[in-house]
Amino acid sequence: MSKSTKSEKTRRIPHGTVAGYRRFKCRCRRCHRAHTLAVREWRATHGANPKKYRKEKKHGTRSMYKTCTAGPDGGKCEPCRDANREYQRTYMSLRRAGLLDSIAQADAGKK
Ligand SMILES: [Zn+2]
Ligand SMILES: [Zn+2]
């Protein structure tokens, strides 16, 4: 492939793809657009600051409550404790009403 003529080479460029832009250094409108979109997508998924993105776990949910260490003394933070309290309250009232079994069954049926 090293002996390919110039016209052959040009023909092989996959225009409108990131490869065309990066590997073949093509700067036509289609390749440039593909590159721009790829960069934009990468930024959207990875974020400008990946570490910051990781910190944005949602407090105030029961799943977060289990691992939360954002409170004073490295304990559960206020929103997470609230979420857990709310969960317990719902749980207890459902149990008192005798609805827990039917809900458990519905949950099991989902899986
Ligand atoms: Zn191109
Ligand atoms: Zn928390």
Fold and architecture overview:
The protein is mainly α. Helices cover 66% and strands 0% of the residues. It folds into 2 domains: 10-53, no CATH class; 62-110, no CATH class. The longest helix has 20 residues, at 78-97. The two termini are 54 Å apart. The model has no long low-confidence stretch (mean pLDDT 83).
The shape, in one word, is elongated
Average pLDDT, all residues: 83
Termini gap: 54 Å
Low-confidence stretches: none
The percent of residues in helical segments reads 55-70%
Tell me the number of structural domains.
2
| Rg from alpha-carbon coordinates | 27 Å
Question: Are any ligands bound, and if so which?
Answer: zinc ion
Keywords:
single chain, about 65% helix, about 0% strand, binds zinc ion
